[in-house]
Structure formats: C-alpha cells, structure tokens
C-alpha cells in the first residue's frame, strides 16, 4: 500500500486512537512532520477533496496552495527563461504565462482523469478503449499551444516529484 493510500485510509478511519492495536494516526502525523509543499499538496488532493466526502474540505488550503504554487512556477519560469524580457510588455506577458501554467498544472495534477470514461480507460458505450484517452484513463493537457502545454507538463512532473519526495520523507518517519 502506497503512502497516499495509507494517508487516505487514515483520514477515513473511524478510530484514531494510538495504542498497540490502532495506528491510524501515525501516517497523518508523519505527513505533518515531514511538512513542506508536499504536505499541503497531499492535504488538498487527498484530504480536502475526498471522493464521496460529506464535506467540501477546507477551500483555504487550495487558495494557499495556488498562491504558493504560482510563486514557485514564476520563480522556475524566470530561472529557466521561458520568456525573454526586453520591454514592459514582455513582463506582463511573462506574468500571464506563469499564472496560466501554474493554474493549469495544478488543476491537471489534482484531477487528471479522462472525463468521458471517468478514468477507466474503457468507452462508456462499448467494451473498447476510450477514444478520448486511448485507454490510458488520463486526460490530455488542454491549452492553446504546444509551448504552454510543454511547460504545464513540466510543472505537473514537478508537482509529482514534490509529492514523491514528501511521501519518502513521511515513510522514513514511520519507521
């Protein structure tokens, strides 16, 4: 069972006692103690947006994550020189690009399931592969151009790597 599955199972636990027979709180505590951007990402993806949840979660976490992620994407975009800055107009263009990439990459990372097949990879009307996702169950990144799409995919992989590092630090704390 991966760390994300253990985290979700702990959140859905009806008994968070910490004794010889109950260890549900251990995973949540390890995630909190390994705290960084990964902790907030896990909280938003797995805790605040639980499928079949009775509540909508804490929208403040998503707002905070979006603000932090936009700043991180801006810093990465500037360091990687996505836009050459020669004038005031270029600064405005760059800021708009960074914001679009941040919003799109976070939205895609939070929910990358193919909508027509609900992430199953099978066509809802027949027993064939879904034509929208070609059987992968993952939606395509949607945006206006190839340059922006590649930046979004790059930032999605950064998000996945951040969560993987966080999960590894959390797993080390569980030992």
Q: Helical content, roughly?
A: 55-70%
Shape: flat
Largest sheet: none
Listing every helix as H and every strand as E from the N terminus to the C terminus, the arrangement reads HHHHHH
What is the terminal-to-terminal distance? 15 Å
Please tally the helical runs, counting DSSP H or I stretches of 4 or more residues.
Answer: 6
The low-confidence parts are: 51-55
**Mean pLDDT over the full residue set:** 79
Helical/strand content category = mainly alpha
Beta-strand proportion: under 5%
Question: Rg to the nearest angstrom?
Answer: 19 Å
Oligomer: single chain
Written description of the protein model:
The relative contact order is 0.14. The protein has helices at 3-11, 24-33, 37-48, 59-79, 88-110, 146-174. The chain contains 6 helices and no strands. The model is unreliable at 51-55 (pLDDT under 50). It is an all-alpha fold. The chain is flat, with a radius of gyration of 19 Å.
């Amino acid at each position: 069972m991966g760390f994300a599955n253990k985290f979700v199972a702990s959140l859905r636990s009806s008994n968070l006692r910490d004794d010889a027979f109950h260890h549900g709180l251990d995973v949540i505590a390890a995630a909190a103690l390994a705290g960084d951007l990964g902790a907030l990402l896990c909280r938003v993806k797995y805790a605040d947006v639980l499928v079949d949840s009775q509540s909508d979660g804490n929208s403040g976490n998503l707002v905070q994550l979006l603000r932090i992620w936009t700043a991180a994407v801006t810093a990465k975009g500037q360091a990687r020189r996505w836009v050459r800055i020669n004038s005031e107009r270029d600064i405005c263009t760059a800021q708009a690009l960074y914001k679009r990439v941040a919003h799109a990459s976070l939205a895609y990372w939070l929910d990358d399931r193919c909508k027509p097949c609900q992430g199953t990879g099978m066509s809802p009307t027949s027993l064939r592969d879904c034509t929208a996702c070609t059987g992968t169950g993952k939606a395509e990144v949607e945006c206006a151009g190839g340059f922006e799409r590649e930046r979004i995919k790059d930032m999605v992989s950064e998000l996945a790597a951040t969560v993987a590092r966080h999960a590894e630090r959390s797993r080390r704390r569980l030992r």
